[in-house]
Amino acid sequence: MRSKLIEFRNVSFRYGEEQPWVLKDCSFEIYENEWVAIIGHNGSGKSTIAKLMNGLLFPQRGEIFIDQKPVTPDTIWEVRKDVGMVFQNPDNQFVGTTVQDDVAFGMENRGFTRTEMLTRLEEVLAAVGMPAYRQTEPHRLSGGQKQRVAIASVLAVSPQVIILDEATAMLDPKGRQRIMQTIKDVQHSKDITLLTITHDLHEIVQADRVIVMNDGQLWDEGLPREVFSKKDGLKEIGLDTPFISSLAEELKLAGISLTQEPLNHEELLEDLWTLHSRT
Amino acid sequence: MDITFKNVSFVYQQHSPFAHRALDKLDLHIPSGSFVAVVGHTGSGKSTLIQHLNGLVRPTEGDVWIGDFHLNAEHKPKNMKELRSKVGVVFQYPEHQLFEETVEKDIRFGPKNFGVGDREIQRRVKEVLPSVGLTEDFLDRSPFDLSGGQMRRVAIAGVLATKPDVLVLDEPTAGLDPRGQKEMMEMFYAAHQEQKLTTILVTHSMEDAATYADHVIILNKGTKYMEGKPEAVFVQKEALQQVQLDVPEVVRFLDLFEKKFGMSIPYRRQSVKDIAKAIEKVMTGGSGHE
Fold first, then answer.
1. Which of B54, B84, B35, B38 is nearest to B190 (CA)?
2. Which residues does UniProt call coiled coil (chain B) (predicted)?
3. Beta strand segments in B84-214, E
4. Which of A238, A254, A266 sits opposite B277 (nearest CB)?
């Protein structure tokens, strides 16, 4: 059986007594080695979820468990060993004066030996394709390179789960693709659970499961294919569907009956081809 | 206002070991009233180009004309302030530039700086609010109590209140959710048409460029790589990939469709609906060509 790595039990959160609830009675589970994408409009509570997971915030109601441990002020240092985060703006997360210092920072904090630090440094920089930049000052890197170093720093302390909170939003399309490829490679080679918070529809399509947030509540969860078949609903809550889903919808309206909700160009073309050869 | 760049180069930190040529003999012409998208990967010179448009920097070599304002290495217009009042720039994440106590004060700051009279400012504030999708009850609130999307609208209202002739938008939808992105672009497009602006959109989104622009300029290594109508530029897959850009997703799909079915549906910036209809035609035996 798949084991639960993260669990939210009836979690509600607000930023102050007088403030509206940002999360309302949210419950969900995330399993080991799974890639879950969380989507939702701005202000739907996505980023709050990420902050609750590593104890940057605590819920007023409900409970959160990471690897069976409840997240409380007493356990956050334990929890943070399991949960690594990469944020939107790469400039806000550098502490070291060189790439290798930066990657080493987290390991030093955890009391790794020097030998182990050196081995891991090599390993994680290779994993994100940055070994040539060990001595480079972070501010001389491009946005995409900075995010790769941020990911390497997180990987170095071997968390069980990595959360990417809009980590590709400030990159150009090619930079985004490269980062996502890096992340996919790393996830495969290291058995890591991945949680991505994003607006990028291409990222969502690649995930194992999607959680859709709306106004602080869990609006839907399921396979990308299932979620994107609910186009009208998604539009109502301010989200979009990928081009390929919109096209599938219009094809149905034009009288072409597809056999399944396509996730990419190849699937749709294959389906059309089969239909075409039958006629 | 017509915008012309003639043989423009710009070098950062010239005569130093860090000298970096951000623009390299760039020629371009943007006719008054057009909506132009400037596209290029990171480091292609887009931001440096923008900084020339309102005189934040002057060319190291070559000449820039913004309407009657002429900028080059030797020559700086005396009336720089007037130039800046004609060219409104919405920088990336403009909400970071809010600073006043209330939304109203923040919107008034720009026109006040350009010497616009109090009553005229009053009139403009009332006028720009609906065009950015805000209501008058926002005026007394602190901009810092608003959501990110609302803050951005306030910042944009401040730019529109200066009544520019040229509107420059640097990745204006970054970080917004899909609905927010669409609303924001529709808002700029409406302002472009109503106020007969010359609009320059710097973007990574081929989709936005294809939807709103009537002319696309592709920058690479500080110089013009390609330009033309979106439907002509965006089908040149190999040329775009050479400079790290992708064609819009719809073009990619039509390309794959042609490979599979041996029949082409030409890209004409048509809607998804029209593409579905064209596919249906091919499927039921008709030809994709019309």
1. B35
2. none
3. 87-90, 166-170, 198-203
4. A254
Task: Give the gyration radius of chain B's Cα atoms.
Answer: 21
Q: Which residue has the tokens 């007594």?
A: A17
Probe site for chain B from A250, A263, A264 (most B CB atoms < 10 A): A250
CB distance B210 to B269 below 8 Å: yes
What CATH homologous superfamily does B3-247 map to?
P-loop containing nucleotide triphosphate hydrolases (3.40.50.300)
Where in chain B are all domains bearing CATH 3.40.50.300?
3-247
Distance from B276 to chain A by nearest Cα, in Å? 5
> In this model, does residue A279 exceed pLDDT 70?
no
Is B256 within 8 Å of A88 when comparing Cβ atoms? no
- Inter-chain touch A174–B43, beta carbons under 8 Å: no
Q: What is the 3-state secondary structure (H, E, C) of chain A?
A: CCCEEEEEEEEEEECCCCCCEEEEEEEEEEECCCEEEEECCCCCCHHHHHHHHCCCCCCCEEEEEECCEECCCCCHHHHHHHEEEECCCHHHHCCCCCHHHHHHHHHHHCCCCHHHHHHHHHHHHHHCCCHHHCCCCHHHCCHHHHHHHHHHHHHHCCCCEEEEECCCCCCCHHHHHHHHHHHHHHHHHHCCEEEEECCCHHHHHHCCEEEEEECCEEEEEECHHHHHCCHHHHHHCCCCCCHHHHHHHHHHHCCCCCCCCCCCHHHHHHHHHHHHHHC
CA A193 – CA A208 distance, rounded (Å): 11
What does each of the 290 residues of chain B score in pLDDT, given as a tens digit? 999 999 999 998 888 887 889 999 999 999 999 999 999 887 789 989 999 999 999 999 999 999 999 999 998 888 889 999 999 999 888 988 899 999 999 999 999 999 999 999 999 999 999 888 899 999 999 998 887 788 999 999 999 999 999 999 998 988 788 888 888 899 999 999 999 999 999 998 888 999 999 999 999 999 999 999 999 999 999 999 898 888 889 999 999 999 998 989 999 989 999 999 999 988 887 544 44
Pairing mode of beta strands A193-197, A217-222: unpaired
Q: Are A36 and A210 in contact (CB under 8 A)?
A: yes
- Rounded alpha-carbon distances, angstroms, from residue A147 to A82, A113, A228, B187: 20, 26, 29, 32
Q: Which residues of B touch A88 (CB under 8 A)?
A: 175
- The secondary structure element, H or E, covering residue B81 is helix B80-86
CATH superfamily placement of domain A1-86+159-224: P-loop containing nucleotide triphosphate hydrolases (3.40.50.300)
Give the separation between CA A69 and CA A174, rounded to whole angstroms: 39
Quickly tell me which residue has 């597809």 as its tokens: A258
Q: Using one digit for the tens of pLDDT, what is the confidence trace for B245-288?
A: 888 899 999 999 999 989 899 999 899 999 999 999 888 875 44
Q: Does the distance separating the beta carbons of B244 and A254 come in below 8 Å?
A: no
Going by the DSSP 8-state scheme, the letter that residue B6 receives in this structure is E
User: Mind telling me how many Å the CA of A136 is from chain B's nearest CA?
Assistant: 15
B223 DSSP β-pair partners? B220
Spatial distance between the Cα atoms of B154 and B108, rounded to a whole number of angstroms: 11
